[in-house]
Backbone:
C-alpha cells in the first residue's frame, strides 16, 4: 500500500516512517508537515493509506478528511484520546493510534488497514472495516454512538452546525455536517433535494410544485435537484 504521513511534528513523522519501513506491504510515498501540501499531492497521486495527525496548525485532521473527495483509508495518529468517538463518524478511518505508539499497536493498525483495503478491492467501492450493507448507521450524540435504522429516517435537515435527523418515532440532533450524514446513507433510498435537506424518497406522501410532503413536513425542492427527484420517482 502506498502511504503518506501528515504531521506537523518532524520527530513524529520520523517515528512513523521508521515503523512503516519495517512492513514490506507498506511503501512510504511522501510525508508532509501541513495538510495543504498533502491535498495538492493527493490531487495528482493515488494513495492507499494516510497516517494523519489530528492537531495541526490552522487545519485539523478532521477538516482535512472533509476537504478531500473520496479519501483513502486513514489511520489517525494523535496525543489526544478524546476524539476516538468522533473518529467513528468517518468511514475512511480504520484505526486510532495514541502517541507514543508501540510496534505491537502499530502492527494491529496495519492489519486493520490491510483488511479494509482488501474489502475495498473486492467490492470496488469505499468501505471501512465494518460492513457497509447493514440496515443502520451510527451517529455521535453527547459522546454516545446511537444506532438509527435507514428505513426509519424520513428527513435530514441542516441547521447551522447541527443536523436534525427525523425518524418515524424519534428525532435526533447531531453536531455534524450534511455531507457527513449524506455519505452514511444509501444512495438508492435517500436524495438531497435542497442544500439543507435530504429526504427518504420512499416516505414521500405528496408532491406539489417545488416541495414534497413527508409525514407532516413540507420539504422544499430546489430547481437543480427537481429533475433527479422526478427521475427517481419515474415521473420523467
Residues:
Amino acid at each position: 500500500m502506498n502511504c503518506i504521513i501528515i504531521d506537523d511534528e518532524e520527530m513524529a513523522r520520523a517515528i512513523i516512517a521508521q515503523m512503516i519501513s519495517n512492513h514490506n506491504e507498506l511503501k512510504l510515498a511522501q510525508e508532509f508537515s501541513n495538510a495543504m501540501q498533502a491535498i495538492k499531492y493527493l490531487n495528482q497521486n493515488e494513495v492507499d493509506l494516510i497516517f494523519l495527525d489530528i492537531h495541526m496548525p490552522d487545519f485539523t485532521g478532521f477538516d482535512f478528511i472533509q476537504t478531500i473527495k473520496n479519501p483513502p483509508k486513514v489511520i489517525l495518529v494523535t496525543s489526544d484520546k478524546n476524539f476516538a468517538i468522533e473518529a467513528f463518524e468517518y468511514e475512511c478511518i480504520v484505526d486510532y493510534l495514541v502517541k507514543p505508539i508501540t510496534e505491537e499497536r502499530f502492527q494491529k493498525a496495519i492489519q486493520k488497514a490491510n483488511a479494509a483495503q482488501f474489502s475495498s478491492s473486492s467490492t470496488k467501492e469505499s468501505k471501512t472495516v465494518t460492513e457497509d450493507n447493514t440496515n443502520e448507521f451510527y451517529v455521535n450524540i453527547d459522546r454516545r454512538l446511537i444506532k438509527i435504522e435507514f428505513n426509519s429516517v424520513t428527513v435530514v435537515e441542516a441547521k447551522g452546525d447541527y443536523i436534525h435527523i427525523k425518524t418515524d418515532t424519534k428525532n435526533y440532533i447531531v453536531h455534524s455536517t450534511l455531507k457527513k450524514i449524506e455519505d452514511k446513507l444509501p444512495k438508492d433510498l435517500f436524495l438531497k433535494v435542497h442544500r439543507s435537506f435530504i429526504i427518504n424518497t420512499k416516505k414521500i406522501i405528496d408532491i406539489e410544485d417545488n416541495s414534497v410532503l413527508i409525514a407532516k413536513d413540507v420539504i422544499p425542492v430546489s430547481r437543480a435537484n427537481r429533475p433527479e427527484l422526478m427521475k427517481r420517482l419515474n415521473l420523467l
